[in-house]
Specification:
- The chain has about 280 residues and is mainly α.
- The protein has one domain.
- The chain contains eight helices and two strands.
- The two termini are about 25 Å apart.
Length: about 280
């Protein structure tokens, strides 16, 4: 390899391919890397969705309808911020996830409590809605991978799927804990076991990674709901009696700590790449 002539300008390597959401608008992947921290925050967020909705509706006495309106408006605002971002921003993404978890819980509660839909029927409806979302997503984008959320259209499909996973998980969790009378603790054990089985199938038997991810994502919702109810519900109702305030506050503090840590790590990585 010959040395460049003095004063010569080195040719720049070809630019990496970019994914755009319109002419000249480059987007990076909008979803975080799937790590242990991802799953911990996800489970904590689902727990906050369960206890947070109860706290606002019951403890603060906004009622189911009032809570649904307030949380729906908050989600609309934060989701708009998330969709406008051109890259993954930890605090925006996880705030959106927490609010989606609360709204997903409220959607199920409204169907069951206000519309009189049974838990088995609600589970069936949300399973069908999630399946339809995946079908439309795949038909449009030819992938369901969360590693390629680089356009607004894909991100809309992604958040629609997330909303239905929370609603489905709420209905399935309530059906297991109340309809089948398994109790909060045993429901949590069962759903944790199912997640372990999915993990073993992926890593041990080579099960499809995308399928395994979405099954585990759905199952973390009833796991988190069971954990939240176990901690917050009164002892005579099968819980530990910590209450919704203490449970929500504790889990939100842990989520905040993890998000701050992830944000700091991301800034360090960006600085290292720039250097």
């Amino acid at each position: 390899m010959t040395e460049p002539r003095p004063g010569a300008t080195l040719a720049r390597p070809p630019a990496a391919p970019s994914w755009t959401d319109g002419p000249g608008i480059a987007m990076l992947n909008k979803v975080p890397e799937v790590t242990l921290a991802f799953w911990i925050i996800k489970i904590l967020a689902t727990t906050v969705g369960e206890t947070g909705a109860d706290f606002i509706a019951v403890t603060l006495d906004f009622g189911l309808n009032g809570t649904s309106i307030i949380m729906g408006l908050m989600l609309a605002g934060v989701l708009a911020l998330q969709l406008r971002a051109r890259r993954y921003v930890p605090w925006v993404y996880w705030l959106t996830t927490v609010l989606v978890s609360i709204v997903g819980t409220l959607v199920t509660d409204n169907m069951v409590d206000n519309l009189g839909v049974t838990l088995p029927m609600a589970t069936t409806i949300f399973a069908a809605a999630l399946t339809a979302t995946f079908a439309a997503w795949y038909a449009s984008e030819r992938t369901l991978s969360i590693h390629s959320i680089r356009t607004t259209r894909r991100e809309v499909f992604y958040w629609a799927a997330i909303l239905f996973t929370f609603a489905l998980g709420t209905a399935a969790g309530d059906l297991a804990a109340e309809g089948l009378q398994l109790g909060y603790a045993w429901s949590g054990v069962i759903f944790a076991g199912l997640i372990a089985a999915v993990t073993a199938a992926h890593y041990g038997l080579g099960a499809n990674a995308i399928l395994a991810f979405w099954i585990a994502y759905i199952l973390t919702r009833p796991l988190g709901a069971s954990l939240g109810d176990l901690l917050s519900q009164p002892v005579d109702a099968g819980g530990l009696g910590l209450g919704t305030v203490a449970t929500s506050g504790l889990f939100l503090a842990v989520i905040l700590g993890l998000v701050l840590w992830l944000t700091a790590r991301r800034k360090q990585a960006v600085a290292a790449d720039a250097g």
